[in-house]
Amino acid sequence: MHGTPRPRAGGRPGVRAVVQSASFSATHAAMYDAILQALRRGDAGQALTDAQLLAQQQPGDARAHQLVASALRATGDEAGAMAAIERALELSPDDADLHLARAGLLIGARKLDDAQAALARSTGLDPNQFPAYVVQAQLALGRGDLDDAERLMRTAARIAPEHPHVAAIEGTLALRRGDADAALAILSRAAERAPGDLQLRHALAFAYLAKGHFAFAEAALRALLEANESDPLRALLADVVRRQGRAEDAAELLAPLAARDAVPPALHRLLGEIELDAQRPERALAHLRTALAAAPHDRRTLVAIVEAWRRLGDVEDARNTLDAALATHVQAPDLWRARLAFEPFADGGAREVVERWRAAMPDHIPALEAMVAVHDVAGEDDANEALVRRIVELEPGHAQAELRLLDLILRRDPDAAIARVRSLIAQAQDPGARRMLRGLLGRTLDVAGRVDEAVAEWAALQAEVAHERLPLPPLSGAPSPLPAQGAVAADAPGTLLLWGAPGSLVERIAATFEVGGAPLRADRYGTNPPPDGFQRYESAAELVDGRVSADMFVAQWRAQLAARQAADGSLVDWLIWWDNAFAVALRAQLPEALLMVALRDPRDMLLDWLAWGAPAPLAIESPVAAATWLAAQLEQLADLIDCNFVPHRVIRLDALADDPQGLAAAMSDALDAPIPPAPAQALGPARFAPGRWRAYAAPLREAFATLTPVARRLGYPDA
Questions:
Q1: CATH topology (fold) of 17-226
Q2: The CATH number of domain 242-412 is 1.20.1580.10
Q3: Which H/E stretch holds residue 67?
């Protein structure tokens, strides 16, 4: 008896659906994998073909459309990629990964607010969406919202605390907040765990740059460039190489970009700057011309091209090129300033250019200021005063104009000038401006001969700000006996240490070095001074009692040279203070170092310090306290001169402070090397004439009595 045939499994509809579904899934999983493999190996064309085929076969598969978007983005079709990801989101609007992918496209299109919204949607759908928090934190860093970046970083850290991208954000946050040491520590530790992570390397490169570790920054940037070719990254690498003094290598790095048909103006500018560093002004000029034509308002380009013309001595080409640019950009102040650089003020050429500038921009303050300079050279005080008053009308409180107007009034009526300064002080809202004006009031009282009032004003002002200033360095002195003076090696670099006590006008020697192209390092007076023994107040006492050895002291100094772009030790190191205890280290471990010291009559130094301040903002609690410290400091100088503790040269600036040629000649004689004079304006405004201290003998009697013995010892008369 035949029963009803039992159907085969394949004939049953439910089983068939399951089998077909499994077969389909396996097929498409293989296609997904093939597309991803093509993207990984950089074959965007094959990936796009396969992804589009998959999307045609499965139009309702959001994953297929996401792969199409990835392939289109890899080919550079950002608009097509966005359309594909939007289609995927229509099919799966609650997919956190798709919102994250869309955010990435929006970031690439610089639609940052939309990207932020997409990322928020992604994390809202999936609170564990780690990449979204990371990208949100990066966006917060980009817009400068450090607190929000830190909040998002902490959320990401709860999901994946050891992930290198968390460390990259944490390190970047530390860097943005000014703590480069902490940033470097965080990023270095993370880089040991994940040496191949590109985001981490990128952050680490900038931490190295912030610390001035250019060689390490270069290594990090080269690794990034090998992993991911990028024009901005290559330009940054070239700039880092250039900052290490290898301009030709930097130019070679940029050669592939320069060979293209369309080169951005900023790249031409960078190439021009690098060629200037490589001492190839002809090549520089070719690039800078192109940059100037594309961006005639760009100040950095103008500075570089003016320098190229200056080195080539081609004044006529400079005039013609700049006049052509001004014909179509007549309201570009920096172009006018550049044009003025090629006209002498003495023979009327500058006047003609400034008149053209004023015709184009009648009430433009820089144009008026330029005409003030023309009148100054010609001695046209009346015309000058009218112009200066016009500047003050246009911009009340304009500091330079007010000072110029005050100077003009002071020449004819000192009492009127005093009244004007007092009026400006009463109007000043900013505490810094008020203090500057009070110092000016003291100097105005000096011109009027009211010296008691001048001293009272300066002393009160200095005492008021003393708590904001550096304490006076403690003084130790050279121990006895000192180590023997070491022999100078034949190939030793030229190391010059420059120092002058407050009021010595050492800054004029520094300015002469700088203008003359000497490798002056004034970073000890900036925000990121080298952390070596010359900078630390404790170091003199440590050398005397043996807590710091001579070789350790000099090793610390040498360790900072690369960051200061003086790796070979050839530099002029401008010190903020001096102690004869330093001779312990220098004689034995740095015998090639020569100390250059600025000196004036100690009484004039104290008066200048009170009235004008000093490059190092040292506190003056009272004139007598300042005189006591200054006398001890100068007694050390007298000991150094008498005992020749270290090789030294003393430049007496009493008659040279306002004489650029005489100062340069004295420096040249001291070093047996030619030093060109600086322009008078580079030295700063004129100070008190030598011997001006005598007018203050009564109000500063006690302070001057403290200084007279050391003044006598240094060769100055008692009275």
A1: 1.25.40
A2: no
A3: helix 62-75
What crossing angle do the helices spanning 96-108 and 78-91 adopt, rounded to 10°?
A: 160
- Measured distance CA(87)–CA(71) in Å, rounded: 15
Residues 6+ apart with CB under 8 A from 444: 406, 410, 414, 417, 418, 421
Please give the Cα distance from 118 to 113 (Å, whole number).
9
Counting Cβ atoms within 10 Å, is residue 448 exposed (0-12), middle (13-18) or buried (19+)?
middle
Average pLDDT over residues 537-562: 93
The CA distance from 237 to 250, in Å, is: 8
More confident residue, 80 or 288: 288
Write the DSSP string, 479-520.
-SSPPPPPPPPTT---EEEEEE-TTS-HHHHHHHHHHTT--E
Name the pLDDT band for 160 (thresholds 50, 70, 90): confident
Which residues are CB-neighbours of 368 under 8 A, at least 6 positions away?
A: 358, 387, 390, 391, 394
Q: What superfamily would CATH give domain 495-690?
A: P-loop containing nucleotide triphosphate hydrolases (3.40.50.300)
Q: Tens digit of pLDDT for each residue in 430-441? A: 888 888 889 889
Side chain identity at residue 255, one-letter code = A
Place of tokens 């079709």: 77
Contact 562/214 with Cβ under 8 angstroms? yes
Cα torsion 668, 672, 674, 675: sign: negative
Give the residues across from 498 on adjacent strands.
574, 596
Q: What is the DSSP letter of 592?
A: T
Residue ranges of domains in the chain? 17-226, 242-412, 495-690
User: CA-to-CA distance for 541 and 470, rounded, in angstroms?
Assistant: 18
Residue among 695, 505, 671 at smallest CA distance from 600: 505
Distance CA 265, CA 291 (A): 5
Angle between helix 62-75 and helix 78-91 axes, rounded to 10 deg? 170
Alpha carbon separation from 14 to 8, 11, 546 (Å, rounded): 12, 9, 91
pLDDT band at 446 (very low <50, low <70, confident <90, very high): very high
Asked if 17-226 and 495-690 have one fold, the answer is: no
What secondary structure does DSSP assign to 617-667, as a single string? -B--S-HHHHHHHHHHHHHHHHHHHHHT-S-EEEEE-TTTTT-HHHHHHHH
Q: Which two tokens stand for residue 591?
A: 């015998």
Quick one: pLDDT band at residue 41, thresholds 50, 70, 90? low
Please report, rounded to a whole number, the percentage of residues in the chain having pLDDT higher than 90: 40
The pLDDT of residue 590 is above 90: yes
Q: What does 295-349 look like in DSSP terms, one character per residue? A: -TT-HHHHHHHHHHHHHHT-HHHHHHHHHHHHHH-TT-HHHHHHHHTTS-STTSH
Q: Taking residues 86-107, what's their average pLDDT?
A: 56
What span, in angstroms and rounded, lies between the C-alpha atoms of 580 and 319? 54
At residue 142 the predicted structure's pLDDT band, cuts being 50, 70 and 90, is: low
- Closest residue by Cα to residue 658 from 683, 675, 678: 683
